[in-house]
Amino acid sequence: GGLRPRPGQEVSVKVLGALEDGGLVERDPRLTFVPGHGDVVQALELGVPTMQPGEVSFFLAACPYAYGRPGREPDVPPEAPLLFEVTLLEVRDGPDPQPLPSAARLRLGSQRRERGNFHFARGDFAAALRSYGLALRALDGPASDSPGPEEEEELQEQRVKCLNNCAAAELKLGRTEEALAACEAALRISPDNGRALLRRGQLLAERGRDAEAALVLRRALELDPASKVIHAELSRLAKRQSPPSS
């Protein structure tokens, strides 16, 4: 009895997950998540909102709705279907952002970025972007303490990683404007980040802004003189700018 979870509400479930041979690979007495945030496998994302509190359901998940083609080392083989037994324990309104200690913000940001990487590896770039966005919200959220120098440095590093990952996902979705914005946001935090410099230079060159692209790529080359990719990009720009020989 009770209402099914609505969008934005938080749920707590008891989960068991098994392979076809009966081997148990998931056991969580109280897993808490917000459906739609991309923090759990798709079988739970799609299945739990159909349930009512107290209900026990079984979901047979084909591999795209579990751990996909790669599986999950070391216990879920590639392309493995999973059988989930799920008990919906509780449904409540989604939590308001609460001030968290810096260590908790770092941990949550890292978890969500790794979840984004999981989606990216599976080719679900929209889901990856959602997870990276949630990671940035955790890293940028209200703090209940003043981070020390080391924690502040790590927070900045995590933000730059998330923004670079956002740029990669945006490119996979064909959204170059958004990818360029993510690169520039990363460079505002870390002006000498080589990955962001290279990608920004490539994007500027694609848009025909060759002079800007060359400046950015030369700076990237100063930081990584051995990079064959940067040399190739600069060579391509030089050929494009040179007049054809008679």
Question: How would you portray this structure in words?
Answer:
This protein has 246 residues and is an alpha+beta fold. The protein has two domains: 83 residues, Chitinase A, domain 3 (Roll), CATH 3.10.50.40; 138 residues, Alpha Horseshoe (Serine Threonine Protein Phosphatase 5, Tetratricopeptide repeat). A four-stranded antiparallel beta sheet has the order 2-1-4-3. β1 and β2 form a beta hairpin. α7 runs antiparallel to α8.
User: What's the CATH H-level superfamily name of the largest domain?
Assistant: Tetratricopeptide repeat domain
**Which CATH architecture of the largest domain?**
Alpha Horseshoe
Counting structural domains, the number is 2
Number of E-type strands: 4
Low-pLDDT windows of residues: none
Spatial strand sequence of the major β-sheet:
2-1-4-3
Structural class: alpha+beta
The total count of helices amounts to: 8
CATH topology of the largest domain: Serine Threonine Protein Phosphatase 5, Tetratricopeptide repeat
Largest beta-sheet details: 4 strands, antiparallel
Spell out the helices and strands N to C. Answer: EEHEEHHHHHHH
The value of Rg in angstroms is 22 Å
How much helicity do the residues have?
A: 40-55%
Could you say which overall geometry the principal axes of the C-alpha atoms support?
elongated
What is the CA–CA distance across the termini? Answer: 83 Å
CATH class of the largest domain: Mainly Alpha
Give the averaged pLDDT, no decimals.
Answer: 90
Residue share in β-strands: 5-15%
Tell me the quaternary state.
single chain
Catalytic activity: [protein]-peptidylproline (omega=180) = [protein]-peptidylproline (omega=0)
GO biological process, one term: negative regulation of apoptotic process
GO molecular function: peptidyl-prolyl cis-trans isomerase activity; protein folding chaperone
GO cellular component, one term: endomembrane system
